[in-house]
Amino acid sequence: MREHVLSAVGRILLKLIGGSRNERMVRARMAVVREKVHVTDDRLLQEYRQLVRQAAGDADAEQWVKAAEELKLVPLAAKDWLRGKTADFHRRLGQGESTESILPEAFATVRFASWLARNHRQFDVQFVAGQVLHEGNIAEEATGEGKTIACYPAIYLAVLNGMKVHLVTVNDYLVKRDRDFCAPIFDLLGVRVGAIQQPMGAAERQVEYACDVIYGTNSEFGFDYLRDNMKLSVAEQVQVGRQDYAIIDEVDNILIDEARTPLIISGPAFGNVDRYRKSDGVARELIKRHHAYQQASGRVEALKRSVKALEGEIDKARGPEQEAATKKQEKAQGELARAEQALERVTKYYEVELDKKSVHLTHEGVSAAQEIAGVGSFYVGANMEWPHLLDQSLRAHVVYERDKDYVVRGGDVVIVDEFTGRLMEGREWSDGLHQAVEAKEHVPVKEENQTLATITLQNLFKLYRKLAGMTGTAVTEAEEFVKIYNLDVVAVPTHRPVNRMDYEDVIYRTADEKYDALVEEISEFSKRGRPVLVGTTSIEKSEKLSQMLTRRHGVVYEVLNARPENAAREAEIVALAGQQHRLKSGSKTMVGNVTIATNMAGRGTDIKLAPAVVFGNCKVPSLERLAELGVAPQSLFPPGTTKCCLYCPEHDPATKCAHCFKPKIDADFPLRGRTDCRHDVPCGLHIVGTERHEARRIDNQLRGRSGRQGDPGSSRFFLSLRDDLLAIFAGEWTIKVLGWLGMEEGMAIENKRVSRGIARAQKKVEQRNFDIRKNLLEYDEVMDHQRKYFYGRRQQVLAGRDIETSVREMIRQTIADAVADYLDGSYPRRCIAEWVRQKLELSVRPDQIHGETAEDLETIERELREMAKAEAASTINITIGEYADPSVDPKEWDLKGLVSWAMSRFRVNVSQNQLRKMDPQEMEKVLTDSAWAYIDSVDFSPMGRYLTEGFASKALAEWARNKFGVELAPAELPDDDPAAAEERIRAAVEAAYLRREIEYPPSYAIDLTVGQAGADNVYALKSLCEWANQKYDAGWSTEAVAGKSVEQVRDQLIALSEQFLTGGRLEETVDAFLDGRGVSVDAGAAVEWAHTRFDTTLTDGELQGEGLREALVRAGRAFLRRELTELERFVLLQIYDTSWKDHLLAIDHLKGAIGLRGFAEQDPKIAYKKEGFRLFEEMLSSVRAKVTDMVFKARLSAEAEMTSVYQVSHLVHEQLTGYDHLAQEMAAQQEAARPRKIETIIRGQPKVGRNDPCPCGSGKKFKKCCGRNL
Questions:
Q1: Are 687 and 714 spatial neighbours (Cβ–Cβ below 8 Å)?
Q2: For the segment 220-249, what is each residue's pLDDT rounded down to a tens digit?
Q3: Which residue segments constitute the domains of the chain, with CATH numbers given?
């Protein structure tokens, strides 16, 4: 009662404020359509008619108009007229008119072009969706409402604003279909439409990306973005960095379902695939041993359910029946107690978590695995990868099922999409799971790869300046769209009412009972002539159901799942899903087609109903027939459409719908439609769900296949308490259900408590999945920031922008880092710490070293020896147990390994025979004494050089000489004045760099010409003279240079270069041009002169913001040092790409190990961000060090050719393992680290008093026996 009152109050409040927020948003946008777009519609039609009249040019112009409108003729003048509209919109926007002011006219223009080119007009609700997309939000439109064409107005507006539009859809078939459909429409408007298909090469892609609108899949757009950032020249790139506006079709599928699946370009990495086969063999043996525990555990679970079910029967039964049920319960409880005792006696080798799709070895499992593998401890040296390998092998066997999670085809393991049931070609599970599954299935195990480039779909679409999406199901995920993508969701009303009856779920106790009921339901509805679409969750279940239909009723059906022979016919199968066929050949009886499909298969293709599937009297008759009946035609229900009474908005019980044609044809209506039809829908497509999906919107998507555009339909889900959703996420709850209901075999239930429980389970899973996606995004923030920064810098280098500035900044930063490193006061102590680490493998911090002068050497030596001895004693104490565990039979001790370790670590020379006679304590003493003797023998005198006066300044001067070739005395670099030292080095390096700018271009030109062909080669001399004349206006001829040595020519060119760069000749050349032009110099003339004199392409825009002279001098300087710039560009790209590749490998390793930080009570997420940032900073520092080394020493040869460091072997849309191993591990560890409420410890047995008999059975008092020492 209270809930009804609150609901009523809520409705009243909503009415007072004008409806819900969604209703108000829709109403405001619908007002724009009806008040402004419709007016423009009429005006455009009149203009078109006038154009046709002019094209006709005779007295029959009106007949021409009528024929043109019927046949959608497009005179050339009409095409020019529509393109003129586009040009006019461009002009108005360029003059400052707002996009919103031209929106109604632009929308109407698109509708008119659609009508001419494709004989359809966008509905008003589609224009509402278009506005939602234009505003950068998500439009939720029901299935069959025409999302494909609803986006055209938003696309057109974006193109008018100069934006490239990427229309993202789910597969190549839809890309081609949708592009081909819209191309004629946009062609009328002067808008070019392209499509990216998977087999296309780079040249074809460049052509398509040059279009205004580009259709493609998320994978193609993402891989092109990554590949562009691996290219060696701008000319090779296809997207050219344009991420303006993306409209995502089926946005929930791409941004939610696939948000955890990064795009990865990978290349070969080092690794041995044999380890996966070895691990698979160990896993098989473990599974065999675990079978006893699995059987005992299953027996306990089954008995628990029986006990609970009997409790429900006892509550319901009375008299003798209750007594019989009680006896059954007592018997079952006895069996349960025995089964639990039996369970305690068997060994559990691994723990299975089905909800996380993970398997972990128990302590007993690790011991057994070590024995089976025969490699010793898994936690020593090279064996430390075994636990991870075994976890993956066990997951492959235990929680990943063939024909459900993957199929094997042609020797390859192909993943099946858990949401769509489609094969996901080219995707691989991460973290070695894919190789584990390949080993399980005895197919070739692919080599592991290292990441060369990667991006998650979440961060890919965040690159776009504007983002929007459309789908049939988004409201249930609205919160995530807002939080993650800042996209609001607007539910757009349907064009016609949805007339689908969604019946209550039917729930059975077991899966077998459910399948029996499913087969009967499908057969019954098909015999009525109604098509049936059956949604299943796996290939295995779709095939099981199809076999049962054939065996029991001989039902003819189509199966649509990931099997290649079925997937290839997807569009054809879906197109026939709403049709009928003859019961038998020659029979007049028509039955409905039965289509068994995995979830969402056929998405993007409408299921259209055959005429006979809908009751004939529900079809709107012709205009002539309506006139005979005295009924006015309606634009919402034109002739041929369905007008169903189920949820008709025009229902008028007072007049029995006298305004409608149906009561005039059939007196049973509208009453029959509002009563009998609702109870048992007689026509339309019937949807059967075989179980609930973990996400509510997937269920809604299946339901949405029925009831499109006002057609009647129905849906019903069949569940069992053993379905995956309930078994995994609500296992204990289902046992309680049995206690409530006491279900009998074969009995179906419809219970509100059960329905609410299922809804709770779905919400729980949705929240869990949201947390995982959010967690993954937070982890990827590290790579996202780094990727944007790196790709931005790389693109700058690729385009040749500000390379000199970048190199100078690197030199400055490198010098600053070196001065800070050498002259921070701790450099000598750091050198000592490193020396000790190498000599004694002792980790010591610089602040633990007390002393800074040569007089302190003795003290430092004594302290370090003491620290080394303490470290050695501790290490031996910890390590010896790994090789000689006191709890293990001494025969199994690894004495050989212990001897080897002692020799390599402490140079201890002891034999296995000697150790075999000792216990672990004696071994420890012998090894410790020997290690200490070795430490005492180490000569510490070489360490004294680090304590000499001025050591840091000498080291810094040596660094500057080796790196930059500059000679500086240590006295010039005072260790007590780092700023002065930095300034001195910088001045010397600047001078050296200037000299490099002067000398390198002439040297390169000589090497390229006479250096290759010889000084007496006429053609080489001619090329050199042309180069010198263009560069320095030298006025050289071949005759003037002939006879001179290469060194003489080089010296002359260097002198000319110096005159231009430092002697003022460049400025004189520019001033001569400007003075010669007088006051008439303008930007255009300057651009032309710069092109001729400096071979440089400038634009008017580049000359704005600075003086004309300064711009020309800058262009001239760039021309004079062009050869050095090309060298720097070459060096930068090679070093950038090599360093980035190595950095990505380091990040891969970090991901694999960061989860262990949880055991050290660190937040893995924070640790990952810190470590990722540190690795990136180290990469940038390494880049600076390598670049500043190379630019002073490297030179390009004539044969030098830039080659990519990326050896691409795989383009993988990676399927993360379950719900992403990284995010899962971090979430679990964070959960474990949370503070817990301290619970009172409850004794399992009564407390024994001091004077009570001792529990051991000795007959003595406790205080005299086992309690004596307590």
A1: yes
A2: 999 999 988 888 888 889 987 678 999 998
A3: 11-269+457-490 (3.40.50.300), 273-446 (3.90.1440.10), 505-664+682-749 (3.40.50.300), 808-953+968-990 (no CATH), 996-1202 (no CATH)
